Amino acid sequence: MAEKRDYYEILEVGRDANGDTIKKSYRKLAVKFHPDKNLGDPTAEDKFKELGEAYEALSDPDKRAAYDRYGHAAFNGGGGGRPSGGGFHDPMDLFSQVFGGGFGGGFEEFFGGAGGGSRRNSGKQKGSDLRYDLEISLEEAARGIEKELEIERYVACEPCGAKGSKGGGGIKACSTCGGRGVVARQAGIFIQQTTCPECRGAGETISDPCSTCKGDGRVQRECRIKLRIPAGVDTGTRLRSSSNGDGGVRGGAAGDLYVFLHVRDHDVFERDDSDLFCSVPLPFSIAALGGELKVPSLDGQSSIKIPVGTQGGTVFRLREKGMPSLSNGRRGNLNVTVQVEVPTKLSSDQEDKLRAFSESIGEHNSPMQEGFFKKAKRFFDL
User: Fold this and answer.
1) Predicted TM-score (pTM) of this structure
2) d(CA 280, CA 287)
3) Residue that wins the pLDDT comparison between 116 and 149
């Protein structure tokens, strides 16, 4: 019996490698030696199993500690007082766990859409993930809301119970691909693998296909799906609705629905992360005399105390009147910039009073003007 190789050597990592390094190396090598990508190499399957065993041992802290202390003997039944690490899982299942999940169909990307690893055992093709773009208002993004989506998707065929067979007994393993769902052909030094044209990747053929679904085990339907949108989302936020994508072929697992959010531009507010910004006109009289100014906020109307002599462009911060954070729920601030509003139409009496007011304050009651002319004096002396 051949002596087992060192697990660290198999995974091509050092003994001080951390978990992320070990996983990264396993992912690279598992794709390289996957049997469905090496149909012409009789040693690939053994290498693939060897990789799975090594990764399972070194990715588990307890098993790794036992292996570092006792070597392969740690998993040989616990003789001589040494701990037993137990058996190892099916390398295909382990591969699925590491590569499974995510938008676009798990690890199928490595097999050109054929999904050889997933169909190799079950013959059930998983349904596709779906994308839905949803536009919401800023107020809805601030408070959170439940939306009902209308989406066309594949669902299980009821007449045949998703089997694809009219009577249920006409299902046989595909003779073209041998139930694998993929076929391969030699092209020089390369092996090209494609979805089986006979069974379309299902690994099965049906002699009495259901008249409703034509043997697919699923049909397209307009579906209504309720989606809860949390407070604090922003444009680009992606929400996942598990198993609400397309149903799988002949009872295969359903894919997921991914909803991409777009928050509409607001008429009043501009947003920067959790902070909101707006500009509000400030009457000339309140700017000069001080007072109270009503301003809009997501909670309704708020008030700002305006000090005497407030200048245009002054920013007032209303704490926790902005958007909630999606991560912790804390609200940002509302930043209000005031723009002093100058009257455009005055009566003769108002003009006379304004001139009298201007003459009464003179030049020494305008600090901004006085400061500007001090800086620009050299230009006026030319």
Assistant:
1) 0.60
2) 12
3) 149
- Tell me what pLDDT residue 199 has: 79
Rounded to 5, what percent of the chain is helix, strand, coil? 30, 25, 40
**Which of 99, 125, 158 is at the close of a domain?**
99
> Are 333 and 354 part of one and the same domain?
no
Q: Does 87 lie in the same domain as 1?
A: yes
pLDDT of 188? 58
Number of H helices, E strands in the chain: 11, 15
pLDDT digits 0-9 by tens, 306-316: 999 999 999 99
Lowest-confidence segment of 53-67, 112-126, 130-144 by average pLDDT: 112-126
Please give the tally of structural domains in the chain.
Answer: 3
Rounded CA separation 205/200 (Å): 9
| Nearest in space to 255 (alpha carbons), one of 372, 146, 151, 139 | 151
d(CA 218, CA 346) in angstroms, rounded, equals: 75
Asked if 244 contacts 250 with a C-beta cutoff of 8 angstroms, the reply is no
Dihedral angle sign, alpha carbons of residues 225, 230, 231, 235: negative
For the ranges 25-39, 88-102, 105-119, the lowest mean pLDDT is seen at 105-119
Q: Which residues constitute the domain of residue 12?
A: 1-99
Residues in contact with 19: Cβ distance below 8 Å, sequence separation at least 6, in sequence order = 59
Closest listed residue to residue 270, CA positions, set 326, 328, 332:
332
Beta carbons within 8 Å of 16's beta carbon, 6+ residues apart? none
| Digit-coded pLDDT (tens) for 362-381 | 655 566 656 665 666 666 55
Beta strands in 62-217 (DSSP E): 130-136, 145-156, 171-173, 182-187, 190-195, 204-206
